[in-house]
Amino acid sequence: MLKLLSHSEEDTKKYAKHLASFLKSGDIIILSGNLGSGKTKFTEGILDFYGLSDEISSPTFTIVNEHYASSTKIYHFDVYRLCDIDEFFAIGGEDYFCNGICIIEWGEMLEKILPKQYLKILFESSDENSNLRYLYFEPHGDRFENIVERMGNS
User: Fold this and answer.
1) Are strands 133-140 and 28-33 parallel, antiparallel or unpaired?
2) Whole-structure pTM over 0.85, yes or no?
3) Residue 154 and residue 152: Cα distance in Å, rounded?
4) Which one-letter DSSP state was computed for residue 59?
5) Closest C-alpha to 123, from 106, 143, 144
6) So what's the pLDDT on residue 36?
7) 75 lies in which domain range?
8) Per-residue pLDDT tens for 38-58?
9) Total structural domains in the chain?
């Protein structure tokens, strides 16, 4: 597991852009943490990397926003309002997994149905300083273990 400290929204976006440099179609990123902990800012950083900085919005009411970069599709999910996995299946959510990069906010409820290779990032706000965030990168599978190791070494 890799632990990073973000001092600002710009730091959070910088970490996301760095991660994005390793991503490819079929990758799944789970973003977990309290409201306002930086999940959407992190997604904004990934979209920035792909030249899609003007397209960010929280998909809270639409469940998924689809973004089209020149090299890949990016699917930004917010499953906060889903009651259970069955609702995810009902929208065809699993069909997205192999068709682009999936970024899933509040995705911990989906972990049992995910492929073996995915990355979970836990966002924690600091009690001492409202600008500080701790980001914990928890890799699942060799591919993400390698990516997290490379991120920790740079």
Assistant:
1) unpaired
2) yes
3) 6
4) -
5) 106
6) 76
7) 23-131
8) 888 999 999 999 988 765 655
9) 1
